[in-house]
């Protein structure tokens, strides 16, 4: 008897990493950060050996995504049916690698004659050293921006490309003959460079590998959504595609929340687009689901609610997932093509979270879909009619982004026909204690523990502490705190819920309201400044800003481009 499929929430993605070079060590290190999110297995094979191994295992095993890099990844993408995520070195990675290579070459040139393993650069008649020579070897295509970089910083950079391992060996030999001392590239290139007696400088960083893991997790999630959609029978809409929350779930008795509920009911009567603005954790998706649940669309047989985070996917992945693609549209495209989320949400609601992070190129495509009410898949020519209501959300100031040229003005006004701003929890003082009680009772029940009969009175005594905190994570942070408190209360049933107990479990509440103000980026503070404040820890910086690591990385690149 076959084992029934686990519910999607309990079904951890399965990711295989493929590498035969020094990339394997970097993949292994980053894997530790994702162990709790996915079942990850390294495959230390390459090219045809890896293809044969994976094909054999796919006959009996499940794999949601494969992560690889360079020529190995390109080889796998064109020969496997499973999605292959290509780890790509960023521009920042390349600059860092070139800086390391420059130090290697400068050090070699500074050595007295005969002390180094490399010949010294010949001196021109004026006695100065010849320009530094660094080789950059990339798979199939060169990096066009390197020429300008080399001219600006006075570095002699020689670029080469390769298609096969034999080709790569020939390029390395050619670079060595030209006087190159250090070669920047992927694992195969750096291994071959060191075999030839040169210094190999590995181009990938942990950040680029984390990005690949983030993309693989999102691909796995979307793949599971689609698989569940295909398992559905009789036209019914599966559950991770239904809106589970209604207006009754918008909790709070404050006047601000009463206005939110009234607006949700009113907006549900219209088919116009809705833009929901609010800080992270303030309940934007909850409101979007409530609007869908209250709308006439809920009466249709197929009225799905489909959500996608526009800031969590790379641009190429987001385009394919939103609009779909035809078979053969690009290397690694799914066989038979792939229906995008617009098609999946037909007759229902498509919720675009973090809409402010959508790349400009995709903003143009989105505007066309909104105006024409039809979508053309990537690589296709046939328009597919769609009847979809768009509800979008953002925690950033979209109007400021329009003024900065980072968001299309015409798309902004098309998305913001109806607008709704959610109040932060710190502005809903009367709701904090009731929400804490409701969250704590639910968390205790989930642990199989009864709430103390005087729980409400104990929380009332803790009200000054709870209200003094600014709740930068809003209702989500309050709910997380309740789960933490429930765990300790379940372990010590006789423990009273006092301010001292709460501070012991959550010392962050000891800060003043000013010290824990909302995570709004100061006008003159760039994303890079925030990253420096947190000592380069991207997770901490992204959490402070209320964005994903992908969005953080994208902002850093945008700021670097406009600097």
Written account of the structure:
With 563 residues, the protein is α/β, with parallel strands linked by helices. It has 23 helices and 15 strands. It has helices at 23-34, 47-58, 70-77, 91-110, 145-153, 165-177, 187-195, 206-231, 255-268, 284-294, 315-323, 341-344, 360-372, 398-403, 409-415, 429-446, 455-461, 463-468, 474-491, 499-505, 527-533, 538-545, 549-562, and strands spanning 14-18, 39-43, 65-69, 84-87, 133-139, 156-162, 182-185, 199-202, 274-277, 305-309, 349-353, 374-376, 383-385, 389-394, 418-421. The radius of gyration is 27 Å and the shape is globular.
| Fourth-tier CATH superfamily name of the largest domain | P-loop containing nucleotide triphosphate hydrolases
Largest sheet: 5 strands, parallel
Termini Cα gap: 62 Å
Multimeric state of these chains? single chain
Specify the CATH architecture of the largest domain: 3-Layer(aba) Sandwich
**Structural class of the helices, strands and pairings?**
alpha/beta
Shape: globular
**How many strands in all?**
15
Name the average pLDDT.
81
Note the total helix count.
Answer: 23
Radius of gyration: 27 Å
How many structural domains are formed by the residues?
5
Can you tell me the CATH class of the largest domain?
A: Alpha Beta
pLDDT < 50 runs, ≥5 residues: 1-10, 114-130, 231-235, 513-523
Helix content: 40-55%
| CATH topology type of the largest domain | Rossmann fold
Could you tell me the strand content as a percent range?
5-15%
Strand order of the main beta sheet, please?
A: 10-11-14-9-15
Précis, in short:
Pfam families: AAA_lid_14, HTH_8, PrpR_N, Sigma54_activat. The chain has helices spanning about 25-35, 45-60, 70-75, 90-110, 145-155, 165-175, 185-195, 205-230, 255-270, 285-295, 315-325, 340-345, 360-370, 400-405, 410-415, 430-445, 455-460, 465-470, 475-490, 500-505, 525-535, 540-545, 550-560, and strands at about 15-20, 40-45, 65-70, 85, 135-140, 155-160, 180-185, 200, 275, 305-310, 350-355, 375, 385, 390-395, 420.
């Amino acid at each position: 008897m076959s084992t029934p499929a686990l519910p999607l929430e309990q079904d951890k993605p399965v990711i295989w990493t493929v590498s035969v070079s020094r990339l394997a060590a970097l993949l292994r290190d980053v894997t530790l950060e994702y162990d709790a999110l996915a079942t990850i297995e390294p495959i230390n094979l390459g090219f045809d050996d890896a293809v044969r191994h994976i094909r054999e295992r796919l006959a009996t095993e499940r794999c949601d995504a494969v992560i690889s890099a360079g020529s190995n990844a390109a080889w796998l993408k064109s020969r496997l049916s499973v999605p292959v995520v290509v780890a790509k070195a960023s521009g920042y990675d390349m600059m860092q690698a070139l800086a390391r290579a420059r130090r290697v070459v400068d050090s070699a040139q500074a050595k007295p004659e005969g002390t180094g393993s490399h010949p010294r650069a010949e001196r021109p008649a004026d006695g100065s050293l010849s320009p530094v020579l660094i080789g950059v070897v990339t798979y199939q295509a060169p990096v066009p921006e390197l020429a300008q970089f080399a001219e600006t910083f006075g570095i002699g950079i020689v670029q080469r490309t390769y298609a096969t391992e034999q080709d790569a060996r020939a390029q390395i030999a050619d670079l060595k003959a030209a006087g190159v001392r250090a070669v920047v590239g992927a694992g195969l290139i750096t291994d071959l460079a060191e075999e030839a007696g040169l210094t190999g400088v590995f181009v990938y960083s942990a950040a680029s590998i984390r990005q690949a893991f983030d993309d693989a997790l999102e691909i796995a999630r979307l793949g599971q959504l689609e698989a569940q959609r295909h398992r559905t029978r009789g036209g019914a809409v599966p559950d991770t595609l239904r809106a589970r929350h209604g207006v009754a779930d918008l909790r709070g008795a404050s006047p601000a929340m009463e206005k939110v509920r009234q607006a949700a009911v009113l907006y549900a009567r219209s088919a116009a687009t809705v833009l929901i603005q609010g800080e992270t954790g303030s309940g934007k998706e909850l409101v979007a689901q409530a609007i869908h649940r209250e709308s006439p669309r809920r009466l249709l047989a197929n009225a799905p609610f489909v959500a996608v985070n526009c800031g969590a996917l790379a641009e190429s992945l987001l385009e394919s997932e939103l609009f779909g693609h035809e078979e053969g549209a690009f290397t690694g495209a799914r066989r038979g093509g792939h229906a995008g989320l617009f098609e999946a949400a037909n007759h229902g609601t498509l919720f675009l979270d973090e809409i402010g992070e959508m790349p400009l190129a995709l903003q143009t495509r989105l505007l066309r879909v909104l105006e024409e009410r039809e979508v053309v898949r990537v690589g296709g020519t046939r328009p597919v009619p769609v009847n979809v209501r768009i509800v979008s959300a953002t925690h950033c100031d979209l109007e400021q982004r329009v003024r900065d040229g980072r968001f299309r003005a015409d798309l902004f006004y098309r998305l913001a026909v109806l607008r709704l701003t959610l109040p932060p929890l710190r502005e809903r003082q009367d709701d904090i204690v009731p929400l804490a009680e409701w969250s704590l009772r639910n968390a205790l029940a989930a642990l199989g523990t009864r709430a103390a009969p005087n729980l409400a009175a104990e929380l009332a005594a803790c009200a000054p502490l709870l209200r003094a905190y600014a709740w930068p994570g809003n209702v989500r942070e309050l709910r997380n705190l309740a789960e933490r408190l429930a765990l300790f209360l379940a372990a010590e049933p006789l423990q009273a819920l006092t301010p001292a107990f709460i501070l012991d479990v959550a010392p962050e509440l000891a800060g003043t309201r000013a010290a824990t103000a909302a995570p709004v980026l100061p006008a003159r503070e760039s994303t890079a400044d925030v990253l420096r404040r947190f000592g380069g820890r991207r997770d901490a910086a992204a959490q402070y800003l209320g964005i994903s690591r992908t969005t953080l990385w994208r902002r850093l690149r945008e700021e670097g481009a406009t600097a």
